[in-house]
Target: HEAT repeat-containing protein 6
Amino acid sequence: MAAVAVEEPEPCGSFRRYLARLGALRPQPGAERPDGDRRTELHLLFDQLISESCGPAPADVCALLAQACQLVHLDQEHLVSKVCQLIHHLLNRFQVMVDEQNLNFLLSYCISALKQCSSWTHVEILQALAALVYNNGPKCQKYLPDLLGKTGLLLQFSDSAQPDVELRRAAVRSMANLCLSVPGQPYLDESYRSVCFQTFLSVLQSSKTSDVDDITFCMLLQNALKGIQSLLNGGKMKLMQTDQIGSLLAVLKKCMFHGLPGLSIEMPTALYPAPLPQYDKRSPVKQEQSEPATFKQPGNRRKKSKGKQKKGEFGEEGKEGLGDAGNESVLGADMLKLHLGDVQNSPCSDPRTRDHLSSHYTSWKRISSSESEYSDAEGGIQSKMRSYQANVRQGALACFLSAIKSIEKRVLYGYWSAFVPDAPGIGSPQSVSLMTIALKDPSPKTRACALQVLSAILEGSKQFLSVAEDANDHKRAFTPFSVTIASSIRELHRCLLLALVAESSSQTLTQIVKCLANLVSNVPYSRLKPGLLTRVWNQIKPYICHKDVNVRVSSLTLLGAIVSVQAPLPEVQLLLQQPSSSGLNNSGSATPHRFNSSEQWRKALPSEGEPPDNPAGCTSSEPCWLLRLCVSIIVLPREDSYSDSDANFPSFSSVYEPCPLRLESLQVLALLVKGYFPMAQSYFLELGEVACRCMEEMDPSIQLHGAKLLEELGTGVLQQYKPDSAVAPDQRVPVSVVTFWTMMLNGPLPGTLQNSPHATLQTSACDALSSILPEAFSSLQNDQQILCVTLLLGLNHSENPLVKAAAARALGVYILFSCLRQDVMFVADTANAILNSLHDKSPNVRAKAAWSLGNLTDTLIINMETMGQSFQEEFSDLLLLKMLRSATEASKDRDKVKSNAVRALGNVLHFLQPYHIANPRFREAIEESLQALISTVQSEATMKVRWNACYALGNVFKNPALPLGEAPWTTQAYSALSSVVKSCKNFKVRIKSAMALSIPSKRECYGSTEQFCQIWSALVIALQKSEDTEDFLEFKYSASLRTQICQALLHLLSLARSTDLPVIWETITENGDAIKSYVLQYLKSGVEENEAGMHTDSYERERVLKGAIEHLGGIEKHVTVWKTNAFSFFVCFIKTASSLSFI
Model:
């Protein structure tokens, strides 16, 4: 034993011995070159180092390589070649990063060797160079002119005229390694990036010549693709020019299909944006060979070829053509059974059905095997070549994925037809696309890459796809673009569902389902003929019980996408109402047991009374099957083990389903409640119990999604009880929902709110607590109400900005509750808490606090109107002044804070009483706040901010205690509103300014005759410009704008003095016809709701008009004789308009 211990070498010991031997070979003083023996010794030593397997210390490797290069002169080319092989081998094998000092020496050595040594050594030198510059690009800046300059070595060796392909490949690889980015380090200059990009592009555009073997050419393409990907990722390269984008996409599409069996396409040098597929030339011979094969055959061929793959791994593409059918074929058979069973609606438990499916699969597999190109175990060169070709396809797809992030989506969608399938025309073959790879490529990893790229294209495509429309049969001489996109969407659905059935690799299957979920999330199904979602729904059901957990999770994600897209959709409502036996009983032996046992969840949970017999939107007596499925996954113990992938999720592995599966089920439940609440409300208390159970668990992620489910349940009830809700009172959740909230407050919710280590969980619990129905809150016991308020006031002082923002928002909700808003102490406590948050350093906290401050000041106005002076006298003057100053300061903040700060200012200024205004402490604050409102109206802030500022000034005008018409700020306020009503691009802002101008109830409030006439003239100009807009979206508000302006004009007429009439008469004579037509249109229009939500009917308009006529009649006697004719004509005009409108 002792002898063995002595013989064990120390780590790095052998390398240090080599280092010592190299030191001994240094030339002695007086000897210029090593003799032949020393040269032989160096060869032997280098060979021993290349075969060394002991892991050395990085410093030893760097020192050894530097010393080796010092010993080898550049005229000893065999030794130069050997030492470069050593550099390449040691750096790659032991993953050594060379320090900067040694890197400089070694790079100088390699560059000098390239310049001085013979061409036969250049490949080994370039390999060494590639290893040295790998992840060292920022340290190589001073060598870039020699490598990438106009006459740079790498440019020379990578030139298309270079006859030696191996040399060209080594140069391209070195260039690609130089393009790798290092986090926190400077990247290549733009000039070098451009040179590299053009070099890589020319390599990809080149064609293979007959004297180049396939594997070498594949490696050349791979290196070029990696280089472009590095430029796109590390260099944050943005592709802007059309020719640059088109050239890159053309070569990527070409490489995506490189070596794909049965397919050969010819691509131009560039693609161009086009609505239809372009440049789809296929080789005639190849096309004839590939046409007889159906889409199913490639899928089944794959099943046979991948029998020896390990679970959880893609495997090497070089081995995919080998092996027997194995387990993957069995999985393929299962998938086929599920698909066919679903289509035929026949349960697999029927023996006859099983026999039929089995015989069908046997014949299907037999046909596939006989036609398979890769069924023999040929190995060798062919297998290796297929592996390298697959690597090229994967590299092209990975590069495409990076390119998608570098191209603006609106530009990328111009090339939609080049990569996304479209329904083939009659007699023409289908264009090649990403789905061609997903359906036909023999490599599962390549198929998965193609699906990832397609998902990236689909992500964020909602606006582009929103033009799709085929709900109506189009009978035109041309095909509209909307129909073309709709056709592409349908083909995508068809191909993805086909790939779903044909796929055998669990990892690729997961990508297919994720791609489907991305597609579903972005498609405008309401504009398409129904049926697409039904096919997806029925096809995905069996995969909910797939043996691989990742497939099950992605299947639930897809179901969540279906129930959330444009909810509620009639097609999805029908799908949710299907009995659980529809499509699910043919999904394998595990399913019936799970769904039978899932009946337990309703029996196990407490319920209050029976659910309504016929809840809105639910016609089936049994629960919605998706709801049952999700609840059973969340709360029931697991019955069967599904796959080895469960081992990746150890949490609750012995009791419950894997955590990701339960989380996804909770998210689907939340989406179901959000989009189809009438269907879920029958199980309101039961779902509350599910949320309760989840929040009681130890896993914070389960608790978090339980709280989110609780929030959606509360929000669903709130929506039903809104004043404008379309849900009939007898179809709503009963107000006895107090039982639900009592269960929550006596359960885990208070503890969750105080769970400080998990801020996101606290935030979600705050949001859930703010979703309580006001009527339910008022019915809670007093101690529970106090508990809610105390928790929120406490959380408002949290150090975490997410929690603090959620608490501030929740307080803004509670302040509107009728049972709380009349409590002066609660209002004061809430005001202090909100003002504290309004000064927080987090913009999000300040934005939420400003919104809550706006709600708080709304409450002040409501209390002033309902409770009178009693509330105003009890409310602290000091706190009111603090609110005024804080809101003024907040009005200078960013727009998200400012929009609600100005709303609060308007309310507080409306709330002020005469003794406040007379108080010297208030005077300066009032002046500052008014100036803040006026400047905000005139500013270039967002339209919502200016809209609220105009609304706030209107509130200010409602306070009779303010010196409106006398104070200097009055002129400024009217001038700002008059300017906005004439010229603002946003019509909603104009409407609010016109509304504010019509609020003062006395003529004195409008100030001098000159000011009154300026307002009148501004409104007349605004009326004439009410249809002038550059933005078509604003045009829909033009009718509301005219209505509001006409109301303001009639209001001014009803207050006008005799001294105001000359200007009014002048505008009537100049623009009489236009004004008359707009006034008549206003008087004749029916009931409509203006932007303030106020209904104005014909009787109200008639009352306002009669008031104006009576007022004008009253001042007629004061009009001088020389004005009588003009005034009579004016009154006649108004009366004529009145008589015409009420005939």
